[in-house]
Amino acid sequence: MLEFRMPSLGADMEAGTLVEWRIAPGQTVTRGQVVAVVETEKGAVDVESWQAGVVAQLLVAVGTKVPVGTVLATLDGAAPAASAAPPAATPAPPPPAPPPPPAPPAPAVSAGARPLASPAARRRAREQNVELASVHGSGPHGEITVADVEREAAPSTPAPPATGEALPEPPPAPAPAPAPATVDRGAAMRQAIAASMTRSKREIPHYYLGASIDMGPSLSWLREQNLSRPVTARLLPIALQLKAVALALRETPELNGFWIDGAFRAGGGTHVGVAISLRRGGLVAPAIHDVDTLSLGDVMQALSEVTARARESRLRSSELSDPTITVTALGERGVETVFGVIHPPQVAMVGFGTTLDRPWAIDGLLGVRPIVMASLSADHRVSDGHRGARFLASLGELLQHPETL
Amino acid sequence: MNPDAIRESVRRVLHAIAPEADLDSVGPGTDFRAELDLDSMDFLRFITGLHAELGVEVPEADYRKLGTLDGCVSYLAARAPAAGTP
Lengths: 405, 86
Fold this sequence. Notes:
The structure holds two protein chains of two kinds.
Chain A lengths: L1 E4 L9 E7 L6 E2 L4 E7 L2 E6 L4 E6 L6 E3 L3 E6 L42 H10 L17 H8 L31 H19 L2 E9 L1 H13 L8 H12 L8 E4 L2 E4 L5 E3 L1 E2 L5 E2 L2 E2 L7 H16 L2 E3 H5 L3 E5 L18 E5 L3 E7 L2 E15 L5 H15 L6
Parallel strand pairs in A: 5-16, 12-17, 17-18
Antiparallel strand pairs in A: 1-8, 2-4, 2-7, 3-6, 4-5, 6-8, 9-20, 10-11, 12-15, 13-14, 18-20, 19-20
Chain B lengths: L2 H15 L14 H4 L4 H15 L14 H9 L9
Helix pairs in contact in B: 1-3, 1-4
């Protein structure tokens, strides 16, 4: 019997609210499959299963907030991939959801304007045939969250994945509905960031290094590339910077990993977290996996997808839980240098400022070159300035040879 | 393709990228990149979205001509496939 638990989506997460099951008892689950949606202060997250098996029981009902580590469901044994035939007992797929019931009488809360709702909530409302105007928003500024839509849908629509009897006492049309788990997502996210950064500043003995890097070769190579690339495959400088960071880490692996229980643990791969600011405030740093092995096109593609999903609040659990280092690029707003605060339990953060045309001496002559200030904040418990300097030197060198990235 | 239809397409693409933004508050000659706080990734998604909607490939060198709604309309009107094809 395998257990599927509420994952920790970052060191700062303590609990999450289950807002959707994507599986039903009897269903076969493959590794990496999205099995549930969990709402956290970072938005709704698609949670993947890292085990394969057949769903035995769903133990937590939709709408419930549970601590990290709580068993959410049980799976029956790692169904041996060898046996091609599915177990005979596998029940038929869930019957199609019943036809949507007539819209409930709209409550008197007629909002004049278009109701404020997250994209995920809108999508859910469409799926559930819920009129957004009739939903009470519990998010910041009365924004409607997925959980709000679920609550509205619950009384009239029987939960769609109701194939099995496995759900322990499915809340029968909860009259007062479970307390809104996401009272104010903006405030919750701010609190999570505060907790994490406070821990960082309290526990991590940071040291900081900066180096000016000539982006000339990279930018002209990029311009050349983009001329021949279709609009859907164009590259941004950040793709080169991310790849160069990942490659430079090969020489200084002590910057790539975690500080856990008083010791350094190397990251199992180079999963680069990219700080993405959210328009409603706050930020997330989802990971792009194995950046050192990806082509620039793949890095760009992954960055584009993860940015879009972060902004729509549809990140995946694996992206939030396992970055081994974080990169933050604040160049867009004219910042010259980033002084990063490490995201625990990681041990380093790399920052890129704005690329600016600067006077620059080359071979004894003064020229004008596009220069970026790359910075490194690193954990002195794991590495020293000497090694950090080596990382920045190697990063700068790699960006002089974009064709090798 | 007529300018109004193009303006609608541009607004639709912008809305997909910045759903919470109030596009009515963006003047026709305003730099919407700054106004809507679009970064270079957002802007690239905008250009990709225009390509999907209108079939126009905007080279990088022309990005700066698409910084305002009016700029987009005049640039795209000259290049979008003739009326009839969506």
